[in-house]
Amino acid sequence: MCVSRSPIPEAVVAVESLTKRFGPLTAVSDLSFTVSRGTVTGFLGPNGAGKTTTLRILLGLAAPTAGSALVFGSPYRRLQDAPQRVGAVLEATDFHPGRSGRDHLRSLAFSAGISDRRVGEVLALVELDEASGRRVKGYSLGMRQRLGLAAALLGEPELLVLDEPANGLDPEGIRWLRDFLRTFAAEGGSVLVSSHVLAEVAQTVDRVVIINHGRFVTEAALGELTERSTARVHVRSPEAGTLLQLLGDSGITAELVAEGVLNVVGAPAERVGEIAAAHGVVLHELLTEESSLEEVFLALTQTGGEP
Amino acid sequence: MRQIRSELLKLRTTRTTLGLVLGMVALVVFTVVIQLVASQFEDSGIPRIEERDTQRTIFATASTAGLFAVLIGIMSVTGEFRHGTIRPTLLFAPARAALVVAKGVACALAGGLLAVAAVVLTFGIARAWLQVDDVEQSLGRSDLLAIAAGTVAATVLWAVIGVGVGAVVRNQVAAILATIVWTSIPEPLLMALVPNVGRFAPGVAADAVSGAPGQEMLSPFASAAVLALWALAFVVAGSVVMARRDVP
Q1: pTM
Q2: Is A166 strand, coil or helix?
Q3: Which of these, A40, A66, A172, B25, has the minimum number of CB atoms within 10 Å of its CB?
Q4: Does residue A160 belong to the interface with chain B, where contact is any CB pair within 8 Å?
Protein backbone atom coordinates (compact mmCIF):
# COMPACT_ATOMS: atom_id res chain seq x y z
CA MET A 1 0.00 0.00 0.00
CA CYS A 2 1.18 3.49 -0.66
CA VAL A 3 2.22 5.02 2.61
CA SER A 4 3.24 8.62 2.67
CA ARG A 5 5.67 9.53 5.40
CA SER A 6 4.30 12.87 6.36
CA PRO A 7 5.52 14.75 9.41
CA ILE A 8 2.27 14.02 11.19
CA PRO A 9 2.07 12.69 14.74
CA GLU A 10 2.41 8.97 15.13
CA ALA A 11 -1.25 8.62 16.01
CA VAL A 12 -3.20 8.05 12.81
CA VAL A 13 -6.41 8.06 14.84
CA ALA A 14 -6.82 10.26 17.88
CA VAL A 15 -10.08 10.17 19.80
CA GLU A 16 -10.15 12.63 22.64
CA SER A 17 -12.81 13.11 25.32
CA LEU A 18 -15.39 12.13 22.74
CA THR A 19 -19.01 12.37 23.82
CA LYS A 20 -22.09 11.77 21.71
CA ARG A 21 -25.63 12.15 22.94
CA PHE A 22 -28.82 11.32 21.07
CA GLY A 23 -31.45 13.19 23.02
CA PRO A 24 -31.42 11.73 26.53
CA LEU A 25 -29.29 8.79 25.46
CA THR A 26 -25.52 8.99 25.83
CA ALA A 27 -23.99 6.68 23.25
CA VAL A 28 -20.36 7.65 23.82
CA SER A 29 -19.06 9.26 26.96
CA ASP A 30 -15.70 10.98 27.40
CA LEU A 31 -13.92 8.38 25.30
CA SER A 32 -10.20 8.72 24.49
CA PHE A 33 -7.83 6.43 22.64
CA THR A 34 -5.32 6.47 19.81
CA VAL A 35 -4.26 4.19 16.99
CA SER A 36 -0.57 4.22 16.15
CA ARG A 37 0.79 4.05 12.66
CA GLY A 38 1.46 0.57 11.37
CA THR A 39 -0.61 -1.28 13.94
CA VAL A 40 -3.79 -3.30 13.76
CA THR A 41 -6.00 -2.15 16.60
CA GLY A 42 -9.07 -4.05 17.67
CA PHE A 43 -11.94 -1.83 18.82
CA LEU A 44 -13.94 -4.09 21.07
CA GLY A 45 -17.08 -4.01 23.12
CA PRO A 46 -20.43 -5.73 23.30
CA ASN A 47 -23.20 -4.77 20.91
CA GLY A 48 -24.49 -1.32 21.78
CA ALA A 49 -21.23 -0.28 23.44
CA GLY A 50 -20.89 2.75 21.16
CA LYS A 51 -18.36 1.37 18.67
CA THR A 52 -20.30 2.21 15.52
CA THR A 53 -21.19 5.67 16.81
CA THR A 54 -17.52 6.35 17.52
CA LEU A 55 -16.52 5.20 14.03
CA ARG A 56 -19.29 7.27 12.41
CA ILE A 57 -17.97 10.36 14.16
CA LEU A 58 -14.40 9.46 13.25
CA LEU A 59 -15.44 9.23 9.59
CA GLY A 60 -17.33 12.51 9.58
CA LEU A 61 -20.80 11.03 9.20
CA ALA A 62 -21.92 12.24 12.62
CA ALA A 63 -20.84 15.25 14.63
CA PRO A 64 -19.56 14.86 18.19
CA THR A 65 -21.53 16.42 21.04
CA ALA A 66 -18.20 17.16 22.72
CA GLY A 67 -14.58 16.22 22.23
CA SER A 68 -12.98 15.23 18.97
CA ALA A 69 -12.09 12.29 16.76
CA LEU A 70 -9.29 12.98 14.32
CA VAL A 71 -7.72 11.04 11.47
CA PHE A 72 -4.19 12.11 10.58
CA GLY A 73 -4.65 15.07 12.90
CA SER A 74 -7.72 16.43 11.17
CA PRO A 75 -11.48 15.89 11.27
CA TYR A 76 -12.39 13.54 8.40
CA ARG A 77 -14.53 16.13 6.67
CA ARG A 78 -11.57 18.50 6.47
CA LEU A 79 -9.02 15.88 5.52
CA GLN A 80 -7.43 16.55 2.13
CA ASP A 81 -7.89 13.66 -0.35
CA ALA A 82 -9.69 11.65 2.32
CA PRO A 83 -10.39 8.58 0.11
CA GLN A 84 -6.68 8.35 -0.70
CA ARG A 85 -5.77 8.30 2.99
CA VAL A 86 -8.61 6.49 4.76
CA GLY A 87 -10.62 3.53 3.53
CA ALA A 88 -13.65 2.48 5.54
CA VAL A 89 -16.52 0.05 5.63
CA LEU A 90 -19.34 0.72 8.07
CA GLU A 91 -22.11 -1.58 6.86
CA ALA A 92 -21.82 -4.66 4.73
CA THR A 93 -25.05 -3.86 2.98
CA ASP A 94 -24.46 -0.33 1.68
CA PHE A 95 -25.15 -1.02 -1.98
CA HIS A 96 -27.96 -0.34 -4.40
CA PRO A 97 -29.25 -3.87 -5.03
CA GLY A 98 -29.87 -3.15 -8.70
CA ARG A 99 -26.41 -1.81 -9.48
CA SER A 100 -23.51 -4.06 -10.42
CA GLY A 101 -20.51 -4.34 -8.13
CA ARG A 102 -18.28 -2.78 -10.74
CA ASP A 103 -20.60 0.19 -11.31
CA HIS A 104 -20.83 0.73 -7.55
CA LEU A 105 -17.05 0.99 -7.39
CA ARG A 106 -16.86 3.13 -10.52
CA SER A 107 -19.33 5.66 -9.12
CA LEU A 108 -17.16 6.02 -6.01
CA ALA A 109 -13.92 6.05 -8.01
CA PHE A 110 -15.24 8.84 -10.27
CA SER A 111 -16.05 11.06 -7.33
CA ALA A 112 -12.50 10.77 -5.96
CA GLY A 113 -10.72 10.99 -9.31
CA ILE A 114 -9.63 7.34 -9.15
CA SER A 115 -9.04 5.54 -12.44
CA ASP A 116 -11.09 2.70 -13.92
CA ARG A 117 -7.91 0.63 -13.91
CA ARG A 118 -7.80 0.80 -10.13
CA VAL A 119 -11.42 -0.43 -10.01
CA GLY A 120 -10.30 -3.55 -11.87
CA GLU A 121 -7.35 -3.97 -9.52
CA VAL A 122 -9.40 -3.91 -6.31
CA LEU A 123 -11.97 -6.25 -7.82
CA ALA A 124 -9.19 -8.74 -8.53
CA LEU A 125 -7.74 -8.19 -5.06
CA VAL A 126 -10.97 -9.21 -3.32
CA GLU A 127 -11.56 -11.97 -5.88
CA LEU A 128 -14.75 -10.49 -7.25
CA ASP A 129 -13.72 -9.84 -10.86
CA GLU A 130 -15.97 -12.55 -12.23
CA ALA A 131 -19.07 -11.41 -10.36
CA SER A 132 -18.42 -7.70 -10.87
CA GLY A 133 -20.84 -7.33 -13.77
CA ARG A 134 -23.73 -8.88 -11.89
CA ARG A 135 -26.19 -6.89 -9.83
CA VAL A 136 -25.37 -6.80 -6.12
CA LYS A 137 -28.83 -8.25 -5.40
CA GLY A 138 -27.42 -11.69 -6.26
CA TYR A 139 -24.31 -11.42 -4.07
CA SER A 140 -23.83 -13.50 -0.94
CA LEU A 141 -23.06 -11.70 2.33
CA GLY A 142 -19.42 -12.70 1.99
CA MET A 143 -19.29 -11.18 -1.50
CA ARG A 144 -20.87 -7.97 -0.22
CA GLN A 145 -18.32 -7.78 2.58
CA ARG A 146 -15.55 -8.10 0.01
CA LEU A 147 -17.15 -5.52 -2.29
CA GLY A 148 -17.27 -3.11 0.63
CA LEU A 149 -13.63 -3.79 1.31
CA ALA A 150 -12.83 -3.25 -2.38
CA ALA A 151 -14.44 0.19 -2.15
CA ALA A 152 -12.39 1.00 0.93
CA LEU A 153 -9.21 0.04 -0.94
CA LEU A 154 -9.93 2.10 -4.06
CA GLY A 155 -7.86 5.08 -2.98
CA GLU A 156 -4.91 2.97 -1.81
CA PRO A 157 -5.39 4.30 1.72
CA GLU A 158 -2.87 4.10 4.56
CA LEU A 159 -5.57 3.59 7.20
CA LEU A 160 -8.44 1.12 7.10
CA VAL A 161 -11.44 1.52 9.41
CA LEU A 162 -13.73 -1.50 9.45
CA ASP A 163 -16.88 -1.90 11.52
CA GLU A 164 -17.61 -5.53 12.37
CA PRO A 165 -16.15 -6.84 9.11
CA ALA A 166 -16.38 -10.45 10.28
CA ASN A 167 -20.15 -10.30 10.86
CA GLY A 168 -21.81 -12.98 8.82
CA LEU A 169 -18.58 -14.31 7.36
CA ASP A 170 -18.00 -18.04 7.34
CA PRO A 171 -14.76 -19.36 8.91
CA GLU A 172 -13.07 -19.32 5.52
CA GLY A 173 -14.08 -15.71 5.01
CA ILE A 174 -12.76 -14.78 8.44
CA ARG A 175 -9.44 -16.45 7.64
CA TRP A 176 -9.29 -14.59 4.33
CA LEU A 177 -9.96 -11.28 6.09
CA ARG A 178 -7.33 -12.01 8.74
CA ASP A 179 -4.67 -12.76 6.16
CA PHE A 180 -5.67 -9.70 4.21
CA LEU A 181 -5.42 -7.33 7.18
CA ARG A 182 -2.12 -8.89 8.28
CA THR A 183 -0.67 -8.30 4.82
CA PHE A 184 -2.04 -4.77 4.78
CA ALA A 185 -0.36 -4.01 8.12
CA ALA A 186 2.87 -5.75 7.10
CA GLU A 187 3.05 -3.36 4.15
CA GLY A 188 2.90 -0.40 6.50
CA GLY A 189 -0.84 0.23 6.71
CA SER A 190 -2.76 0.90 9.91
CA VAL A 191 -6.06 -0.73 10.75
CA LEU A 192 -8.85 0.01 13.21
CA VAL A 193 -11.23 -2.91 13.26
CA SER A 194 -14.25 -3.23 15.54
CA SER A 195 -15.83 -6.41 16.80
CA HIS A 196 -18.04 -7.63 19.60
CA VAL A 197 -16.23 -10.97 19.65
CA LEU A 198 -12.59 -10.85 20.68
CA ALA A 199 -11.91 -14.30 19.23
CA GLU A 200 -12.78 -13.02 15.73
CA VAL A 201 -9.93 -10.54 15.77
CA ALA A 202 -7.57 -12.01 18.39
CA GLN A 203 -5.32 -13.46 15.71
CA THR A 204 -5.33 -10.28 13.68
CA VAL A 205 -4.81 -7.42 16.09
CA ASP A 206 -1.72 -6.14 17.87
CA ARG A 207 -3.61 -4.02 20.35
CA VAL A 208 -7.11 -3.74 21.69
CA VAL A 209 -9.19 -0.83 22.86
CA ILE A 210 -12.16 -2.07 24.86
CA ILE A 211 -15.23 0.06 25.52
CA ASN A 212 -18.53 -0.63 27.20
CA HIS A 213 -21.61 1.54 27.74
CA GLY A 214 -19.90 4.21 25.66
CA ARG A 215 -16.99 4.44 28.08
CA PHE A 216 -13.36 3.49 27.90
CA VAL A 217 -12.57 0.23 29.70
CA THR A 218 -9.01 -0.59 28.79
CA GLU A 219 -6.36 -0.27 26.13
CA ALA A 220 -3.63 -2.88 25.92
CA ALA A 221 -1.39 -4.92 23.71
CA LEU A 222 -2.97 -8.29 23.10
CA GLY A 223 -0.21 -9.99 25.11
CA GLU A 224 -0.84 -7.81 28.15
CA LEU A 225 -4.46 -8.81 28.06
CA THR A 226 -3.53 -12.48 28.18
CA GLU A 227 -1.30 -11.84 31.17
CA ARG A 228 -4.16 -10.24 32.97
CA SER A 229 -6.12 -13.40 32.70
CA THR A 230 -6.46 -14.59 36.27
CA ALA A 231 -5.53 -18.20 36.67
CA ARG A 232 -7.74 -20.31 38.88
CA VAL A 233 -6.56 -23.31 40.88
CA HIS A 234 -8.89 -26.24 41.06
CA VAL A 235 -8.41 -28.40 44.16
CA ARG A 236 -10.07 -31.67 45.09
CA SER A 237 -9.54 -32.88 48.61
CA PRO A 238 -11.38 -35.08 51.16
CA GLU A 239 -10.50 -32.35 53.69
CA ALA A 240 -11.70 -29.42 51.59
CA GLY A 241 -13.27 -27.68 54.57
CA THR A 242 -10.01 -27.72 56.52
CA LEU A 243 -8.06 -26.51 53.51
CA LEU A 244 -10.51 -23.66 52.95
CA GLN A 245 -9.87 -22.57 56.53
CA LEU A 246 -6.07 -22.81 56.12
CA LEU A 247 -6.08 -20.86 52.86
CA GLY A 248 -8.23 -18.20 54.45
CA ASP A 249 -5.72 -17.91 57.30
CA SER A 250 -3.02 -17.23 54.69
CA GLY A 251 -5.13 -14.52 53.12
CA ILE A 252 -5.95 -16.52 49.98
CA THR A 253 -9.43 -16.39 48.50
CA ALA A 254 -11.02 -19.76 47.94
CA GLU A 255 -14.48 -21.03 47.42
CA LEU A 256 -16.09 -24.39 48.06
CA VAL A 257 -17.80 -25.04 44.74
CA ALA A 258 -18.89 -28.65 45.32
CA GLU A 259 -18.52 -31.39 47.86
CA GLY A 260 -14.72 -31.69 48.29
CA VAL A 261 -13.89 -29.23 45.51
CA LEU A 262 -12.29 -25.81 45.97
CA ASN A 263 -11.61 -23.01 43.53
CA VAL A 264 -8.67 -20.85 44.57
CA VAL A 265 -8.02 -17.43 43.12
CA GLY A 266 -4.98 -15.25 43.64
CA ALA A 267 -2.47 -17.94 44.49
CA PRO A 268 -0.48 -20.31 42.28
CA ALA A 269 -0.94 -24.09 42.53
CA GLU A 270 2.52 -24.42 44.17
CA ARG A 271 1.49 -22.24 47.09
CA VAL A 272 -1.77 -24.18 47.59
CA GLY A 273 0.18 -27.47 47.52
CA GLU A 274 2.73 -26.17 50.07
CA ILE A 275 0.04 -25.04 52.50
CA ALA A 276 -1.72 -28.40 52.20
CA ALA A 277 1.53 -30.33 52.73
CA ALA A 278 2.54 -28.19 55.72
CA HIS A 279 -0.67 -29.17 57.46
CA GLY A 280 -0.86 -32.72 56.23
CA VAL A 281 -3.99 -32.19 54.15
CA VAL A 282 -4.50 -34.87 51.51
CA LEU A 283 -5.01 -33.64 47.96
CA HIS A 284 -6.58 -35.72 45.21
CA GLU A 285 -6.29 -33.13 42.50
CA LEU A 286 -4.43 -29.86 42.03
CA LEU A 287 -4.92 -28.15 38.68
CA THR A 288 -4.31 -24.69 37.24
CA GLU A 289 -7.11 -23.45 34.96
CA GLU A 290 -6.10 -20.56 32.69
CA SER A 291 -9.07 -18.44 31.74
CA SER A 292 -9.32 -17.86 28.02
CA LEU A 293 -8.89 -14.51 26.32
CA GLU A 294 -12.61 -14.45 25.69
CA GLU A 295 -13.30 -14.85 29.41
CA VAL A 296 -11.01 -11.92 30.15
CA PHE A 297 -12.85 -9.88 27.58
CA LEU A 298 -16.22 -10.84 28.98
CA ALA A 299 -15.10 -10.11 32.52
CA LEU A 300 -13.84 -6.69 31.45
CA THR A 301 -16.97 -5.77 29.57
CA GLN A 302 -19.27 -7.05 32.26
CA THR A 303 -17.69 -4.98 34.99
CA GLY A 304 -15.99 -2.14 33.12
CA GLY A 305 -17.51 1.06 31.88
CA GLU A 306 -20.47 1.07 34.23
CA PRO A 307 -21.57 4.65 34.82
CA MET B 1 -17.03 18.00 -11.86
CA ARG B 2 -15.93 14.55 -10.67
CA GLN B 3 -18.97 14.30 -8.46
CA ILE B 4 -21.30 15.24 -11.32
CA ARG B 5 -19.76 12.45 -13.39
CA SER B 6 -20.28 10.06 -10.51
CA GLU B 7 -23.90 11.11 -10.11
CA LEU B 8 -24.58 10.72 -13.83
CA LEU B 9 -23.13 7.22 -13.66
CA LYS B 10 -25.37 6.41 -10.71
CA LEU B 11 -28.42 7.57 -12.67
CA ARG B 12 -27.44 5.37 -15.60
CA THR B 13 -26.60 2.21 -13.70
CA THR B 14 -29.85 1.20 -12.04
CA ARG B 15 -33.20 0.40 -13.57
CA THR B 16 -34.87 3.19 -11.61
CA THR B 17 -34.21 5.84 -14.25
CA LEU B 18 -35.24 3.53 -17.07
CA GLY B 19 -38.46 2.73 -15.22
CA LEU B 20 -39.20 6.42 -14.78
CA VAL B 21 -38.54 7.12 -18.47
CA LEU B 22 -40.86 4.31 -19.55
CA GLY B 23 -43.48 5.46 -17.04
CA MET B 24 -43.30 8.97 -18.45
CA VAL B 25 -43.58 7.80 -22.05
CA ALA B 26 -46.63 5.70 -21.21
CA LEU B 27 -48.30 8.51 -19.28
CA VAL B 28 -47.59 11.13 -21.96
CA VAL B 29 -48.91 8.96 -24.79
CA PHE B 30 -51.99 7.99 -22.78
CA THR B 31 -52.79 11.54 -21.70
CA VAL B 32 -52.28 13.07 -25.15
CA VAL B 33 -54.42 10.45 -26.86
CA ILE B 34 -57.18 10.66 -24.24
CA GLN B 35 -57.33 14.44 -24.64
CA LEU B 36 -57.36 14.22 -28.42
CA VAL B 37 -60.16 11.67 -28.37
CA ALA B 38 -62.15 13.60 -25.77
CA SER B 39 -61.89 16.84 -27.71
CA GLN B 40 -63.54 15.21 -30.72
CA PHE B 41 -66.91 15.45 -29.05
CA GLU B 42 -68.57 18.80 -29.36
CA ASP B 43 -70.98 18.21 -26.51
CA SER B 44 -68.53 16.69 -24.10
CA GLY B 45 -68.24 19.99 -22.30
CA ILE B 46 -64.57 20.05 -23.05
CA PRO B 47 -63.62 22.85 -25.46
CA ARG B 48 -63.52 21.54 -29.00
CA ILE B 49 -60.33 20.65 -30.73
CA GLU B 50 -60.35 23.68 -33.01
CA GLU B 51 -60.04 25.97 -30.06
CA ARG B 52 -56.72 27.49 -29.26
CA ASP B 53 -56.80 26.69 -25.53
CA THR B 54 -57.66 23.05 -26.20
CA GLN B 55 -54.70 22.67 -28.46
CA ARG B 56 -52.54 24.54 -25.99
CA THR B 57 -53.57 22.16 -23.21
CA ILE B 58 -52.80 19.16 -25.40
CA PHE B 59 -49.35 20.40 -26.41
CA ALA B 60 -48.59 21.35 -22.82
CA THR B 61 -49.08 17.71 -21.83
CA ALA B 62 -45.33 17.43 -22.32
CA SER B 63 -45.01 19.07 -18.91
CA THR B 64 -45.83 15.62 -17.46
CA ALA B 65 -42.05 15.22 -17.67
CA GLY B 66 -41.85 17.51 -14.64
CA LEU B 67 -43.44 14.89 -12.40
CA PHE B 68 -40.86 12.29 -13.44
CA ALA B 69 -38.02 14.78 -13.15
CA VAL B 70 -38.96 15.61 -9.58
CA LEU B 71 -39.05 11.87 -8.86
CA ILE B 72 -35.57 11.40 -10.34
CA GLY B 73 -34.29 14.25 -8.19
CA ILE B 74 -35.93 12.96 -5.01
CA MET B 75 -34.80 9.39 -5.57
CA SER B 76 -31.22 10.34 -6.38
CA VAL B 77 -30.91 11.54 -2.77
CA THR B 78 -33.42 9.41 -0.86
CA GLY B 79 -32.29 6.26 -2.68
CA GLU B 80 -28.85 6.74 -1.13
CA PHE B 81 -30.36 6.89 2.34
CA ARG B 82 -32.66 3.98 1.63
CA HIS B 83 -29.89 1.67 0.47
CA GLY B 84 -27.18 3.06 2.74
CA THR B 85 -24.98 4.10 -0.18
CA ILE B 86 -24.95 7.57 1.35
CA ARG B 87 -22.22 6.29 3.69
CA PRO B 88 -19.69 5.29 1.02
CA THR B 89 -20.76 8.30 -1.06
CA LEU B 90 -19.92 10.70 1.78
CA LEU B 91 -16.70 8.87 2.64
CA PHE B 92 -15.57 9.54 -0.92
CA ALA B 93 -17.06 13.03 -1.13
CA PRO B 94 -17.12 14.52 2.37
CA ALA B 95 -18.14 17.99 1.10
CA ARG B 96 -21.86 17.62 1.56
CA ALA B 97 -23.16 20.84 0.04
CA ALA B 98 -21.08 20.11 -3.05
CA LEU B 99 -22.69 16.68 -3.21
CA VAL B 100 -26.17 18.20 -3.21
CA VAL B 101 -25.17 20.65 -5.93
CA ALA B 102 -23.62 17.85 -8.03
CA LYS B 103 -26.79 15.81 -7.71
CA GLY B 104 -28.76 18.90 -8.71
CA VAL B 105 -26.69 19.37 -11.86
CA ALA B 106 -26.81 15.67 -12.82
CA CYS B 107 -30.56 15.46 -12.28
CA ALA B 108 -31.09 18.73 -14.15
CA LEU B 109 -29.36 17.18 -17.16
CA ALA B 110 -31.48 14.05 -16.83
CA GLY B 111 -34.58 16.23 -16.49
CA GLY B 112 -33.63 18.13 -19.65
CA LEU B 113 -33.40 14.90 -21.64
CA LEU B 114 -36.67 13.71 -20.17
CA ALA B 115 -38.36 16.98 -21.23
CA VAL B 116 -37.01 16.76 -24.77
CA ALA B 117 -38.36 13.22 -25.06
CA ALA B 118 -41.75 14.32 -23.73
CA VAL B 119 -41.91 17.29 -26.11
CA VAL B 120 -40.98 15.21 -29.16
CA LEU B 121 -43.55 12.60 -28.21
CA THR B 122 -46.36 15.02 -27.43
CA PHE B 123 -45.82 17.28 -30.41
CA GLY B 124 -45.38 14.31 -32.76
CA ILE B 125 -48.60 12.62 -31.72
CA ALA B 126 -50.66 15.82 -31.52
CA ARG B 127 -49.51 17.26 -34.84
CA ALA B 128 -49.97 13.98 -36.66
CA TRP B 129 -53.46 13.63 -35.17
CA LEU B 130 -54.47 17.17 -36.15
CA GLN B 131 -53.12 16.62 -39.65
CA VAL B 132 -54.95 13.32 -40.12
CA ASP B 133 -58.17 14.84 -38.78
CA ASP B 134 -57.62 17.84 -41.01
CA VAL B 135 -57.98 20.23 -38.08
CA GLU B 136 -56.42 23.62 -38.40
CA GLN B 137 -53.48 24.05 -36.08
CA SER B 138 -54.21 27.20 -34.13
CA LEU B 139 -50.81 27.49 -32.42
CA GLY B 140 -48.08 29.14 -34.44
CA ARG B 141 -44.46 28.18 -34.60
CA SER B 142 -43.51 30.65 -31.88
CA ASP B 143 -46.24 29.34 -29.57
CA LEU B 144 -44.96 25.79 -29.96
CA LEU B 145 -41.38 26.91 -29.42
CA ALA B 146 -42.43 28.70 -26.25
CA ILE B 147 -44.20 25.58 -24.98
CA ALA B 148 -41.20 23.39 -25.81
CA ALA B 149 -38.66 25.73 -24.22
CA GLY B 150 -40.91 26.30 -21.20
CA THR B 151 -41.38 22.58 -20.70
CA VAL B 152 -37.64 21.94 -20.77
CA ALA B 153 -37.00 24.80 -18.33
CA ALA B 154 -39.74 23.72 -15.93
CA THR B 155 -38.66 20.07 -16.03
CA VAL B 156 -35.02 20.93 -15.35
CA LEU B 157 -36.08 23.04 -12.38
CA TRP B 158 -38.38 20.29 -11.11
CA ALA B 159 -35.43 17.88 -11.07
CA VAL B 160 -33.41 20.36 -9.02
CA ILE B 161 -36.33 20.91 -6.63
CA GLY B 162 -36.55 17.13 -6.22
CA VAL B 163 -32.91 16.93 -5.14
CA GLY B 164 -33.50 19.67 -2.57
CA VAL B 165 -36.67 18.05 -1.23
CA GLY B 166 -34.90 14.69 -1.02
CA ALA B 167 -31.98 16.18 0.89
CA VAL B 168 -34.33 17.80 3.39
CA VAL B 169 -36.78 14.92 3.83
CA ARG B 170 -34.45 11.90 3.30
CA ASN B 171 -37.25 9.37 3.52
CA GLN B 172 -38.17 8.31 -0.01
CA VAL B 173 -41.86 7.58 0.46
CA ALA B 174 -42.40 10.69 2.58
CA ALA B 175 -40.61 12.94 0.09
CA ILE B 176 -42.54 11.60 -2.90
CA LEU B 177 -45.88 11.72 -1.12
CA ALA B 178 -45.28 15.23 0.20
CA THR B 179 -44.43 16.52 -3.28
CA ILE B 180 -47.32 14.86 -5.08
CA VAL B 181 -49.88 15.72 -2.41
CA TRP B 182 -48.68 19.32 -2.18
CA THR B 183 -48.97 19.94 -5.92
CA SER B 184 -52.31 18.19 -6.29
CA ILE B 185 -54.32 19.51 -3.34
CA PRO B 186 -53.13 22.62 -1.44
CA GLU B 187 -51.70 24.31 -4.53
CA PRO B 188 -54.81 24.22 -6.74
CA LEU B 189 -56.86 25.17 -3.70
CA LEU B 190 -54.61 28.12 -2.97
CA MET B 191 -54.80 29.16 -6.62
CA ALA B 192 -58.60 28.98 -6.55
CA LEU B 193 -59.00 30.83 -3.26
CA VAL B 194 -56.08 33.26 -3.18
CA PRO B 195 -54.67 33.50 -6.71
CA ASN B 196 -52.41 36.36 -5.66
CA VAL B 197 -50.50 33.91 -3.49
CA GLY B 198 -51.23 30.72 -5.42
CA ARG B 199 -49.55 31.94 -8.59
CA PHE B 200 -46.23 31.89 -6.74
CA ALA B 201 -46.58 28.24 -5.77
CA PRO B 202 -44.05 26.00 -7.55
CA GLY B 203 -46.60 23.75 -9.27
CA VAL B 204 -48.64 26.67 -10.59
CA ALA B 205 -45.52 28.52 -11.70
CA ALA B 206 -44.29 25.39 -13.49
CA ASP B 207 -47.60 25.06 -15.35
CA ALA B 208 -47.32 28.66 -16.46
CA VAL B 209 -43.72 28.13 -17.63
CA SER B 210 -44.75 25.04 -19.63
CA GLY B 211 -47.40 27.09 -21.43
CA ALA B 212 -50.54 25.56 -19.94
CA PRO B 213 -53.50 27.91 -20.33
CA GLY B 214 -54.87 29.40 -17.16
CA GLN B 215 -56.22 32.57 -15.63
CA GLU B 216 -54.44 34.74 -13.12
CA MET B 217 -51.09 33.00 -13.61
CA LEU B 218 -47.90 35.01 -13.88
CA SER B 219 -46.32 35.38 -17.30
CA PRO B 220 -44.13 32.44 -18.38
CA PHE B 221 -40.97 34.47 -17.82
CA ALA B 222 -42.00 35.68 -14.37
CA SER B 223 -43.09 32.14 -13.52
CA ALA B 224 -39.74 30.77 -14.67
CA ALA B 225 -38.02 33.21 -12.33
CA VAL B 226 -40.33 32.17 -9.47
CA LEU B 227 -39.68 28.48 -10.13
CA ALA B 228 -35.93 29.10 -10.33
CA LEU B 229 -36.10 30.80 -6.94
CA TRP B 230 -37.93 27.77 -5.53
CA ALA B 231 -35.25 25.49 -6.95
CA LEU B 232 -32.52 27.64 -5.44
CA ALA B 233 -34.30 27.72 -2.08
CA PHE B 234 -34.70 23.94 -1.99
CA VAL B 235 -31.08 23.32 -2.96
CA VAL B 236 -29.84 25.74 -0.32
CA ALA B 237 -32.13 24.17 2.31
CA GLY B 238 -31.04 20.69 1.22
CA SER B 239 -27.36 21.64 1.37
CA VAL B 240 -27.71 23.16 4.82
CA VAL B 241 -29.64 20.20 6.22
CA MET B 242 -27.21 17.79 4.59
CA ALA B 243 -24.18 19.59 5.98
CA ARG B 244 -25.56 19.76 9.50
CA ARG B 245 -27.49 16.60 10.16
CA ASP B 246 -25.84 13.33 11.12
CA VAL B 247 -25.93 10.56 8.59
CA PRO B 248 -27.15 7.28 10.09
Answers
A1: 0.86
A2: coil
A3: A172
A4: no
